[in-house]
Structure formats: C-alpha cells, structure tokens
Specification:
alpha/beta; 33% helix; 9 helices; 10-stranded mixed sheet; 276 residues
Length: 276
C-alpha cells in the first residue's frame, strides 16, 4: 500500500530499453532503520542476496515513514543531474485518453530539427506508447509501474541511466494517466505540465485541485473538437486560474496544429534558459 496516495505499490517497476528490448525489474524496500535497498532481476532470472531478503521480509515496515521525504531527496539529485547537463526536464501529467502521447509525438516531429527530445514513458503495463515515440526517431525508455499509479524519483533516476539523454536537450517524462497521485511526487523536473482535453469537462481543475495547483502549465488539448462537445473554455480557464493564479495556459490541437507555435516557443525559450 502506498502510504502517500493509497494505491497498491509493491516497489516494483520494469524498465525497458526500446533500443535493446531488454527489460529489468527493480524492487525497492525501505527498512525500519530508514535503509533503502534496491535489487533487480532481468527476464526470468531472479538472483538476490539471501541475507538482504531475510532482513527485508522478516521486518515489519512502519507505515508512518516519510516516503515523500525520501522521494524528494532523490528528486533533488535528479534535478542536479539535469542542471549539470543543461537539460530541460518536464513532467507531463493527465488523465488517460487526454492526448498526451499524440501531443508528444507531434511536438517531437515538428521540432526534431531544432531540439533533441528524449522520452521516459510511464504506464502500468505495455510499451504501446513508447513504440509510438520510437517511430519518431526519439530516444525512449519505457517504465511499467505494475500496480503503481505514478512514477517516482527513484524510477526516473534508473530510467535516466538507460536513456542517457544528450547534453543541452529536452527530456519529456510522460507520467501514468492519473489526475491524483502524480501531482504529489517530485521527479526532479523543471516544470509540471497538466494536459486536459475538451472531451473531459471544464470542471476538472476544481475536481482535482492538487494537480492543477502543483502544475506550472496547463495544455488544453483537442480544441478542434469544440464544435462537437459541450465544453466551456472560459469557465475551464477561470477554474484553473482560481486554483492556481500563476498557471500558464496553452490551447492546442495536435491534429490540426492550432496553437502549437506558442507551446513550441515556450519549449525553445526555456531550454535556452537551462543552457545559461
């Protein structure tokens, strides 16, 4: 049980390198004394130190431990890693079906001659979205969280080792589809980007305030569908700015390209800031 968000999370994540098609399972256990033990196994091989396993599985783990504090420590390390390499890292969050992957692939294809963009793709299962990213020519690593409902800083740390993004580039972290838990976990990103489609309802910012309060940017997607859905754009914007007066909003269609130039300009400008 995740003591922070209430989801079931056994500490296991599978990281797949789409270039080599090799997958590793990583397990992280926290002991009562605060020690964090991570071990892994590849494919069907499961080799673990018996002393470690005995210590882990014969110990009752306190649910009162500050999980977020440990996550934030790793996130700070990730942030330093990005800063040292002049990398613009963004955490893309949304509910399932908002169009994150479509927006991401359109962004990569449109900017591939101006920016180097690598992707960490998060899903509970499958590598379907990572395969779509790979078709753009972008470097991509798939993280499958299993029963977990969000990425955390430890997963990103391990994913970056596999991804190895170039200096002076952009790393897009596409989080698990969920408007609740990902808002709580710092991954070391420069900015959190919440993506909301016009097919979801304009009241999402007030229904899920923690997500919109934590985000620096809201991208309203699928605006080409506005003639066909009952969605009040101004009311949605009012709700979002009520929750977070500093949030920056882009209205886009990844299908027609409408509004994407402002989003692209933001990316280019903020990468330049990271390089100063």
């Amino acid at each position: 049980m995740c003591v922070t968000c209430g989801c079931y999370d056994d500490g296991e994540a599978k990281i797949t390198n789409l270039e080599t098609d090799e997958a590793e399972h990583h397990h992280t256990h926290t002991l009562l004394d605060g020690t964090i033990i991570t071990h892994s196994h590849s494919h069907d091989t499961h080799i673990e130190g018996p002393q470690i396993h005995a210590k882990i599985h014969n110990t009752t783990i306190s649910l009162e431990q500050d999980i977020l504090a440990k996550n934030n420590l790793l996130a700070a390390q990730n942030r330093g890693w990005f800063k040292g390499r002049n990398i613009l890292a963004l955490n893309l969050m949304s509910s399932p079906g908002s169009g994150k992957t479509t927006l991401l692939t359109r962004t990569i294809n449109d900017l591939k001659h101006q920016l180097s963009i690598s992707v960490i793709e998060g899903d509970q299962e499958t590598a379907n979205d990572a395969k779509k990213i790979k078709e753009t020519g972008s470097k991509v690593i798939q993280i499958n969280t299993g029963t977990g409902c969000h990425l955390d800083a430890s997963m990103i740390e391990r994913g970056l080792q596999e991804l190895n993004p170039p200096l002076n580039s952009v790393v897009m972290i596409e989080n698990v589809g969920n408007l609740v838990c990902p808002a709580l976990f710092d991954l070391g990103e420069l900015a959190k980007v919440v993506i909301l489609s016009v097919t979801e309802g304009e009241d999402k910012p007030v229904k899920y305030p923690h997500m919109f309060r934590a985000s620096n940017i809201m991208i309203l997607t699928k605006i080409d569908l506005l003639p066909y859905v009952d969605f009040d754009v101004q009311k949605c914007i009012d709700y979002a700015t009520q929750i977070n007066p500093q949030i920056q909003i882009f209205q886009v269609s990844a299908t027609t390209g409408t509004g994407l130039e402002k989003w692209y300009a933001w990316l280019i400008e903020n990468l330049k800031i990271c390089q100063r």
